[in-house]
Amino acid sequence: MTTTATNQPHGGPDARDRWLSRRAALRVGGVGAMAAAVGLWARPGAAAGQKESGPSRREAEAIGRGITDALASDPDALEDWVAEDVVGHVPLAPKGSGKGLNGLKAKAAAVIAAFPDAAITVEDLAVDGDRVSAHGEIRGTHDGPLPGFPATGKRVRVQYVIFARVERGKVAEYWYQLDTLGALKQLELFALDGGNEGDAAPTPDGDS
User: Are 133 and 164 in contact (CB under 8 A)?
Assistant: First the structure.
């Protein structure tokens, strides 16, 4: 997945909006040209006619695509789509882990190191006021270590769901659920018959 330089634009808000639209389109390669044709890559919160109660459908799609791209390849790009003081809620995660934007970026970098070819898709997305929900799939090869586990070299395909609250064009709070058990089974780190391959399951990122 293609990434772009993080140098900042000059020339005021309008120039920044155009720069962010080009940056988002470049990060997704061929999909960017098609998305730009329908106005998908407008800077969240900058599109004319946005309701104060929440993002439009196109803005929500832009946020979803921008975040999945950042989580798969460029954690620094999360700054464009996630609030600095974002609050995450993830089942079983240690309380306080991954707090704020910097915590989320660090967790994303760790996952990229463990799954360098990670690909994240958004299969369904719904918008209701300031709330956006999405369902999709994460695919990748476990070529790097996870907490407590060395690399296995195995491929995984797992489903996820996320429910987010958007403020001023950025995610301010989210609730996230990943099929962790399915991932562990595919990595042969857990078996339902009690034959666990590892001593403990890795802990998901986020706040509880």
Answer: yes
Percent of the chain as helix, strand, coil, to the nearest 5: 35, 25, 40
Which amino acid is residue 5, in one-letter code?
A: A
**So what's the pLDDT on residue 156?**
95
Indicate the domain borders of the chain: 83-186
For the domain made up of 83-186, the CATH class stated in words is: alpha beta
Q: How far apart are the C-alpha atoms of 43 and 40, rounded to whole Å? A: 9
Angle, CA of 127, 164 and 104, to the nearest 5°: 145
pLDDT at 99: 79
CB 138 within 8 A of CB 166: no
In whole angstroms, what is the distance from residue 35 CA to residue 21 CA? 10
Taking the chain (208 residues) in consecutive chunks of 10 residues, what is each chunk's mean pLDDT? Answer: 34 47 43 37 41 82 94 94 94 69 92 94 95 96 89 95 96 94 88 52 43
Q: How far apart are CA 45 and CA 15, in angstroms?
A: 15
What is d(CA 71, CA 109) in angstroms, rounded to the nearest whole number?
A: 8
How many helices (H) and strands (E) the chain has is answered by 5, 5
Helical pair 13-27 and 30-37, crossing angle rounded to 10 deg: 130
Please report where in the chains the tokens 């832009």 appear, as a residue.
62
**DSSP secondary structure code for residue 197 in this structure:** S
**pLDDT confidence of residue 17:** 54
pLDDT of residue 97: 59
